[in-house]
Each structure stands twice: as structure tokens, then as C-alpha cells.
Amino acid sequence: MAQLADSELTELGRDVARQLVGADTVKAVEVKAGFDSSDEPAYHFWFRWDQDPDWQLMGLMRMRLGQKLRDELMARGDEGYPYIHILTPQDWEKRAGA
Amino acid sequence: MPDPAELLAVARLLAEGGTEMPPSDAQLRRAVSSAYYAMFHTVVRAGAQRFMGPGNEACPGYNLIYRGFTHSRLKDVCKRLDVARLAPRLQEQLGRQSVGQDMRNFASGFVALQELRELADYDSRAVLGQSDAIGSVETADLAVQAFARTAPEVQADVLALMLVSSRG
Question: Which of A19, A51, B128, B152 could form a disulfide with B28 if both were Cys (CB 3.0 to 4.6 A apart)?
């Protein structure tokens, strides 16, 4: 299984977010590689949502971003499953401070 | 019998919290978990009704099928459905190249929420915010709607795959 470098993953996350929601909406992306609860390769992508929260849209974008990243990763031979976290700036800070 | 709509409503109440106090960590964790279980019970109810037939909820076989679905098997199948084009073995099993966008939306929502639910229920270090909780409710709501829109024949084949581990 091919595995992308952290910098490539972050750039991929940024690209996909730019395509699907726009650069003004998501201004920060973080990625962590590891394993999921099934012990399978996984990536956790965190996106900071810098507009007023539109929860329904954010719920939809969790699916869209995940599917697009899954397709992009698989096209690169990477079977790691992408898990998507879309956070408001407040929750982004809360996570960073933990 | 667990009602997916009630579970989703409970999840929403917990995630939104009160007007004066933000939701507690326990409320956020239970919101994520309840949103996931709304999806889980949507699937197992659909499976039991499909394979036992409508109106047979009181039959022992209904509960056997209901209890026959497992979280790990559902996640495994949903991961394999969350692709643009199904793997050859899955194409052979399902007799189609893809399951359609609605089933894919359900599958990706299910995998995402099962993982978050694992964190919410079992990981003492997990830091959950309202984004995770309300986002989970919205994702579950959209996924349940997507599942309901799936073509009946696709839904039946996927439910069979979720219930039975095939050989060969």
C-alpha cells in the first residue's frame, strides 16, 4: 500500500477543500496518519470552518470531503481510509489546547 | 424497539444543549453515540423487515435477524461500498459495478460515525466539541435519508451482504 507523506496529505486536504467548499470557508487543514478502531490504516483530516456554522452543510461536506479524499487516495494506491472532522474555530482551539 | 427517528431527536437535543449552558462533555459524547445508533438501527430494522417480511416484528426470526447484524461487519461492508467503482469481488457478489450515490452517502456516513462513536464511547482522551456532535447528527440525518432513497433491489442486496459472511 502506498502511503503519502504528511505534507502531501495536508496539501491534498487543502486542494479538496478548496474545490468543494472554497478557500474562504476552510482556512486550515491538519492531517494525522495512523490506524482506525478496526486497526486498519487511516487518516484523520481536520478542517477549520471559518464561516458562520451551517451545520447541515457541514454534515454534507463531511461526506463529500471524505468521498473525494477516498477517491484521490485510492487513485494514488493508498488504501488508508480518510476520517473527516470539520470544526468551528472555537472547537479547533479547544482541540489544539487539549 | 429502538426508533431511529427518536434516537436522532435525542442526539440533536443533547448536541444543541441548553440556551444558557454549553453542552457538557457527557452530552456531546452521548449525542455522537446516539446519532450513530440512529443509523445502525435504520439498517438492522430494514434488514429484519426485508428478510422476515412486513408485519412480522413479533416473530422470533425477526429478532434473530435484528441481532444478526454486527457493527464490525457493517463497517467493513460500508468501507468497501464507499468507492467510485466496486472491487471486482464485490461487483461479482452484488451483480453491479456501483451501488449509486445514495448508498455511497449512507456508507461513508456510517463509517465516519462509527469511528467517532468509538472515540465518544471508549476514548478517555478524545476531545469532542459541538462541531463533532451537531455535525454527527446532521451526517446521520442525511445518511438515513440517503439510505431510504436507495433503490429497493440495491438495498436488499447490500443488506444481505451486511448480514452474511460469504465464502469463496
Answer: B128
